[in-house]
Design a protein that fits this description.
Four copies of one chain form a homotetramer. Chain A is α/β, with parallel strands linked by helices. Helix content of chain A is 25%, strand content 23%. In chain A, the strands form two sheets. Chain A has a seven-stranded parallel β-sheet, sandwiched between helices. In chain A, strands 9-10-8-11-14-13-12 form a seven-stranded mixed β-sheet. In chain A, α1 packs across α9 (325-340), α5 (159-173) packs parallel to α7 (220-227) and α5 packs across α8 (263-274). Chain A is globular, with a radius of gyration of 20 Å. Chains in contact: A-B, A-C, A-D, B-C, B-D, C-D. The interface between A and C is large, with 59 and 60 residues.
Chain lengths: 359, 359, 359, 359
């Protein structure tokens, strides 16, 4: 009666070797968790400059059972796949070594997400290796499944951008976004700020907030505009709320024709886009407590919940992901699975918890 | 150096007697807290049908020191001011008794908030006393200061509506909203659901959520449209987030002329509207952790924080209130102060806490 | 380098069929999650009287992908293993049917946990089937590994009892508890109260609490006294704290001889008891943020973290579990694995999340 | 019907001038909040070395309305009362200046809490001004009301110590503690760690914890032993839990005579000690949600809730305070009120909030 998501028997032969560079951060730790339970990977290295030699479990308590230790990135041996979970800029600095030492580099930073040097000029103060910009495949298999197999450089999407993109993509495919006005209002958890301290992210100041932290000009706008194939007017605002994991995007969409927007047309667009997708779950309405997408329902998973409601000339689209999962490490492993020809769900079969508080 | 908000010496003569009907609910408890520390009121009755005879402190632990007991509403003696904190519909059923037994009735429900029977037909399945609709003054002194003195029926605003109205009102006054598109994205705490249980509001299910609970068609839209004096296109969506007290509204405003919106014009509009207001605090930008309006910075108070940022053809307005305070009981006491000629800040001088978690 | 916890190839032949009775509760949902990812079980039924016919995913959003539906318990067909996650008393009422319809019954309630009818008289107002009391094996494999294979009735331990037992058991084995005084101070999450509502467990009242809810006389004392093989003086107090999943026990142990307690003796006792245990992790001291047992480090898992510190004549023992996992459904699946001869870790390899908020 | 706690008319003549040194910390901010609403104080200075010249409201958002600015401590002019809310050690370094510049110094650090240099040697690596040790009056008026009037140096108690002391004091007075064994198990909020960052107190790591942070050897033990006038065996363990404000102590008391402990004897002891106390509330049993002491019921106040239950030879005592209030700044203002002859409740009449989440 129950469906088993992973069919591990499909992974034949030897596991691929994997290195996680920047393994002491949150995305790095999540990569280690996913890869250590993945039938197609063997973790060869988990690097951290500051913690080389120490136990991984001392930083990521859920990995105490793995016996993993951090190694120094300078000691990195060649691997099949190198996952870079380093701060923005590091991958650019080391891209040549990374590519030399691995058949596939999956970068979780913003370093190679955008397609043109001009976009980096506009949103990120330029790029130090402009000649390489455009070589990476954006990681989301829902949009780039065809380009991933055989790729040697994959760029993971930003978490807020991912939340918005999975919500908007079917509408663009169905032509609803051309000329539309789209307001994206994002709510995101504290893990987005990364491991480390700082007063604003200290528990007394960060608990219980609904805090606008990027009212305008968030860099993830660039990705949304790049990945959504339509000409539309995008406004984006992000708020920090009281959870650790999770990103929720509410997209208020006003199509160009002034509506009304018909629910059945939307359903068709979303079903067409996602009916075959293993990691997108349409969720709109119905009974019970969990009627719309909610980040806590997908915490720890690579699942995106997407739902919507029509409102005259407006369509309200909700999407929810785990920013560390589908918004970062989960997306990266999913893309690597596609790139390597593994079953897409390999290593990603944790379904989440219920009940769960504020994961 | 420090300003004392309350000048109690201005209240001469005897205190007014006050009754709180529906005192076992959250708004009722907050009214009791505010009135018990108010120099111009003496609490004559705190009614609760289900808890008559029991100690108020057994329900509201912060009021254990007051010695108050719930009484039966049928035993209500005449008072100067009757505050009704009952579920929607109750005040309509009892409005004649209430008005007979009090010089001033301040109702916190939706029963008399809207101006016309037609609006009740559209948003609330009609009204049982249509001939009385329109007699009440909407409680917000920022909009109705002139009409409150001498009023005998005051209708408190809805919490989400209040959050939106304080953010949008100055723009309407300055003419920015005519023909504009306005998207109001609200985040609200669990106290809005009221005292009592239910699975959706149980701690395991309600903790850590970002839950769309009113994607479209929220009744507070009617109030916003009524109170904001402009012709604009309103879209409204509310989300439950993990706090108990607080409502935060992010209003994405697109003026009709296509912008750009100039920050200095906005500043002028907000300063003009609020510079003299004792309970509105402009908060936009600057340094530090608390740069924009945040509900936790105003928890327990009657203060609304309002701020904004410009973004090309968009203006993003943030407002934050305590839904039980400014969004309900605080607003009611403020309006009563104005109605009775008391100093506006009497009984409302608690400035909030820092640090504070998820109040 | 990383250890794979599950060796699925060891499960040969056909999967066992499993029914979960009482599947709409929290423990029932967790059983479904664990069994749906378990290589040795096929879920044949998930019963719920009140929700028969409805989708399991409507109640447990993490199980939307399974396609499971609740069935009526009256329609239950014979299965290999029946897991009962029903309220206390239900299994006693149905024990004959349950045993007739399944080779193995695993009951998660308190119905068969205690060994003698007298204990039920003392702590639970008696037992309706006293002749069956004593037939069940207490589920914790750490204490009952030898008795589980071939058992036909297994009784899962209480969550608070489990937390205390895993902390105290090695001390009893080493003889430290005879004549000792032991104070057990427990902190537990809101999921212990079960699915459903009620004012005390509503989000506004239950958030942020440190609430003594069982100052004395908690029924889990009976289990601790039964399972810990020593004569000692037990005091037990439980507090509700702000998390959904998790139970943390701090056991203050004062040995009879007046100490001092030596750390190396304790280490020896704990290592002897747990060095081979797949689901107990010794965690005491060291560097970093997570130096002692913490419930959030084991949320979603079947792992118990145990640690201690010596303090003159006192030994402070900390233990942390997920009350829904090791404290309930995880323990049940672990015991069933041992009973059926499956690898102990089968279906229980989720290592938990980092970071994670208040799971 | 309602009792007004503050009788402001009793403060005649001019306000005292007050300086808060170390005003950018949490206790400093709370002092400013309390003093700015206090009828007997005028805030003359709020010093902060690092933030001199900046607005107080930029750090403490609840004080935006006060217009206060931080000044440099070197510019401090003489005042009537100097409150020092500085890190441990600073007051010792500056005690001569402080006493020269103020008639009364109220220190919130541990610098002068203990009575003998030997105790500082044992618990704090000694004291730099041993000749002054013993000159201060410990701030708790419940224990030192007679010594406070006219004092020129007052030392505020530690928050965890205060929680334990208010719970144990009546038992010592009644002679129940001589020869007793007492286990104090404390749960405390994140504000205890102070303003500032650090990984352990970052929101992702600190949220949702039940984290033993001082299993043994907590320095507050020294205070408890000093203030509780009895010979008893004290064991103390502190846990961090998920709230910002609040400390809850569960004291497991085993009297020397082996009991049983009689509830009516305990009631007599507690009533005798606290019946006249304006800031201690006995709370034990009864109906409703809030039957025992809870920190969230006293958040923002100077109130200590104390309750107990008997259990054979054990007495379980619960006490709950706001660690920033009664456990620090509130206690300091209360003591200053007594020292200056002000009404004890002046400036301390905020009764707390209901509902409230995790303050």
């Amino acid at each position: 009666m129950a469906t088993k998501l992973t069919n591990e028997s499909e992974i034949d032969g030897e596991s691929a070797t994997a290195a996680v560079v920047g393994a002491s951060g949150f995305a790095g730790g999540e990569l280690l968790r996913l890869l250590s339970g993945h039938p197609g990977f063997e973790i060869a290295a988990a690097t951290s400059r500051s913690r080389a030699g120490r136990s991984v479990g001392a930083v990521h308590p859920n990995l105490r059972g793995t016996g993993l230790r951090f190694s120094d990135p300078v000691d990195l041996d060649p691997v099949d796949v190198l996952f870079a979970a380093t701060p923005h800029g590091v991958t650019t600095d080391h891209i040549d070594e990374f590519r030399e030492g691995a058949d596939l580099v999956v970068d979780l930073s913003a370093d190679f997400r955008l397609d043109t040097p001009e976009t980096y000029d506009e949103w990120y103060d330029g790029h130090d290796r402009p000649e390489l910009v455009g070589e990476a495949v954006y990681a989301l298999p829902e949009l780039h499944r065809e380009e991933l197999p055989g790729a040697d450089l994959i760029a993971g999407g930003g978490c807020n951008a991912t939340a918005a993109i999975v919500g908007l993509y079917p509408l663009a495919e169905a032509g609803f976004l051309d000329g539309a006005r789209v307001v994206v209002d994002v709510k995101v958890g504290s893990s987005e700020g990364g491991a480390g301290g700082g007063v604003a992210s200290s528990h007394p100041e960060r608990s219980g907030v609904v805090r606008p932290y990027a009212p305008t000009g968030h860099r993830h706008e660039a990705e949304i505009l790049q990945e959504i194939d339509a000409e539309f007017d995008l406004s984006f605002t992000a708020h920090a709320v009281d959870m650790v994991r999770g990103a929720s995007a509410t997209c208020h969409v006003f199509p160009a024709d002034g509506g009304p927007v018909e629910a059945r047309d939307c359903w068709r667009a979303y079903r067409e886009a996602y009916d075959e997708e293993p990691f997108v779950r349409l969720q709109a309405g119905g009974r019970g407590v969990y009627r719309y997408p909610e980040p806590k329902a997908v915490a720890g998973t690579n699942i995106a919940e997407v739902g919507f409601e029509t409102d005259g000339d407006r369509l309200v689209v909700f999407s929810a992901i785990d920013n560390v999962g589908k918004g970062s490490a989960g997306q990266a492993v999913h893309a690597a699975n596609v790139a390597l020809g593994y079953p897409e769900t390999a290593g990603l079969d944790f379904p989440g918890l219920h009940p769960v508080g504020a994961p």
